[in-house]
Amino acid sequence: MKPKSFVLALAGGALLATGVIWPSASQGQADATDRATEALLVELTAQQTQLAQNQTAIDQKIATVAENVRVARIFVSRGGGRGK
After folding, report:
1. What is the spatial distance between Cα 43 and Cα 67, in angstroms, rounded to a whole number?
2. Which residues, 6+ apart, have CB-to-CB distance to 4 below 8 Å?
3. The pTM of the whole model exceeds 0.85
4. Most buried in the list 15, 22, 42, 77, measured by CB within 10 Å?
């Protein structure tokens, strides 16, 4: 796992753990602030998921480019490279 994606996963896990562990208000204490906070947490979780997906896509593209460079170097070395 890449360091950046590890940090993103760790932050997402911490956010999820906070949502699970955080004591929920009783029905008599619920108000608009709690609902707004819940909506923000849902939005933040969705953004975290999107960031993790984007990082995975970036890692895949980098791996593809690295493989293409590796193959190109093999072909150059077989063809004699710059020495000819």
Report:
1. 36
2. 55
3. no
4. 15
Q: Which residue has the tokens 């602030």?
A: 33
Would you state the pLDDT for residue 7? 76
Please, are residues 8 and 47 in contact by the beta-carbon 8 Å criterion? no
Going from the first residue of the chain to its last (84 residues), give the mean pLDDT of each consecutive group of 10, the final group possibly shorter.
71 72 61 84 95 97 97 88 56
Q: Is 83 exposed, middle or buried (0-12, 13-18, 19+ CB in 10 A)?
A: exposed
pLDDT confidence of residue 8:
76
Give Cα 34 distance to the centre of its chain.
Answer: 27
Q: Which amino acid is at 28?
A: G
Q: Which amino acid is at 64?
A: T
At 36, the amino acid letter reads: A
For 69, residues 6+ apart whose C-beta sits below 8 A from its C-beta are: none
Taking the C-alpha atoms of residue 14 and residue 24, their distance in angstroms, rounded to an integer, is: 17
* Whole-number Å distance between alpha carbons of 15 and 8: 11
